[in-house]
Design a protein that fits this description.
2 copies of one chain form a homodimer. By secondary structure, chain A is α+β, with helices and mostly antiparallel strands. In chain A, the strands form 2 sheets. A 7-stranded mixed β-sheet of chain A has the order 2-3-4-8-5-6-7. The interface between A and B is large, with 92 and 92 residues.
Chain lengths: ~375, ~375
Amino acid sequence: MLEQFHVPEQDAVRVDEDSLRKMVVSLFEKVGVPSDDAALGADALVTADLRGVDSHGVSNMLRYYIAGFNSGDITANPLVKTIRESLATATLDCDGGLGIIIAPKAMDMAIEKAKHTGMGMVTMRNGRHLGMASYHAMRALDHNMIGICMTAVGPAVVPTFGKEPRLGTNPIAVAVPAANQHPFVLDFATSVVPVNKMRLAERIGSVIPGGWIADTAGVPIMQEGPAPEYAPGQLNLLPLGSNREGGSHKGYGLAGFVEILCGILSGGGFAGMGGQRGDSRHMVAAYSIDAFSPVDEFKAMMDEWMDYLKSTPPADGHERVLVPGQPEHEEETDRRSRGIPLHKEVIQWFRDISEELEVPYVL
Amino acid sequence: MLEQFHVPEQDAVRVDEDSLRKMVVSLFEKVGVPSDDAALGADALVTADLRGVDSHGVSNMLRYYIAGFNSGDITANPLVKTIRESLATATLDCDGGLGIIIAPKAMDMAIEKAKHTGMGMVTMRNGRHLGMASYHAMRALDHNMIGICMTAVGPAVVPTFGKEPRLGTNPIAVAVPAANQHPFVLDFATSVVPVNKMRLAERIGSVIPGGWIADTAGVPIMQEGPAPEYAPGQLNLLPLGSNREGGSHKGYGLAGFVEILCGILSGGGFAGMGGQRGDSRHMVAAYSIDAFSPVDEFKAMMDEWMDYLKSTPPADGHERVLVPGQPEHEEETDRRSRGIPLHKEVIQWFRDISEELEVPYVL
């Protein structure tokens, strides 16, 4: 359902990725982000846009990041500290720095460790928004490694049988290389839907399917209908599985697992513990394929398996079976050639912010 | 819903865990399993029974294992080979040996590696039934480590938009130690329900909730009703999330992730590739808490977080919010004191098999 977040064609202006990258770099640099970091952050954002994950691209996130840098809620030039380290592991304190910039560096640490020991994992505390989790996981692909990335965020999800949100939407991303096939890339919130999708439904006043949210008494709403009114800022998202019979204890447990690996293992605390505004906690891990199996054999088997899944006879009403990462890969192919569609209002925002921050407008 | 598999009190005979362990050891030894292996396998089975996971205990699995050893589908005294190894990783060929016996040894390897490097992971190919996945994950607890275990099994789950099962129910287990709280133990099939629960519903002719299965055209059945008739042996279980709007692509992707880590990374192939009868592929991993954070601080924060989750105000119609591992912990406390309830028919089976195999009946 990538397309739910896409700009209607008549409102879209197509921009090429290089210009967009330059534009973002200038803005980041202007608010105090060092050049190399600005380039990293721009790549994370633009990659999300290229892959059709508009919810984590420039349109949705950049103004929030700029505001955060300006208010000091996000540290523009953080002093990232290694708190603890072993041959295969490390824990970093992010000093309030932005996840889209620090997590790639943490992944590079994990990759270096994995070259030596077979695998590497880095947890991060005191972080800020991670962006598209699969961006960081995918960094492992060129090294013939499997990449994993998770982030634990503020409470928006009710535990099974509970009526208050006590867990974040805590996404999990996995990236696995293949030979001739596109990589297997999984990237999903452990709630039924992410916050963005719910906010979008609220904004456009759309009817939402059953199974997405609980009512204010904590009871899963299993029929479609309009979103109920909550206390300001509150969302009672349901864990993946929706209700107990549908397996919501599994989504709840997965969200908890992410909290443990990101928040508790890093010493960074948990959702609801009362951290800094916008605080989030992350982890990245890299697994060297060569440490388990010959790389060529692994990749050939990935191809064979993905072909096997794609060749599943489709269910009535559907034309094809997809594998994780396929829609984003197809979108990326299209956008690399045709440009990234931005809403004309976003283009106007770029014009305005360029003028305000006195950086050249290059889109 | 542990209780769904429990023996009705009027049909139950309580046995103590030591006798049950001895009984299982004798039977395993008699069919050719070496003594140490027999003790390991008995511990895995009896631990499942103690924790109320009757689907993976003696009642449901032992006769299948004994038959497998006798037919040769399961190798009683396998020659387990290390195919590849690095500082933090290894791949084993299980030689058709039983997962409940080999996976604990693989976990011990992973734990040893984690002591040195911070974490360890072992994949296994050419394996047989793994039993209760959390048994293996929980082995890490006494070492102040986080344990993970997964197993990839034969096809029973339809991909999102597909009409034929091409993935296993591929469970994921996670065990995490706390200080005064019981451990956090998550253990779940990546389908909405496991095969056993579906077979049970078929057997007792019960109406099943919507969202568990697809019809023979691959369309998710979202209303409750009787199970449809499939081709012999076929089950069209739905991935966690049930349908696309409920997030089934997430459950589908998770099942695929398990297939990759267990089957493809070990070189053992994938569901539907045409392996040996009963073939399954596993992985275990151990993460040393001390490699990331001080153990005492981690465990204290686990306690605090689990208290926080348990203290969530309950939704209307519910009395309390549970955390993963809590029902099993409560069941274990009860069964350690009152004994393990076995169905009188299972007791009779033990009498019969003891006579047939000429081992002393000790229950």
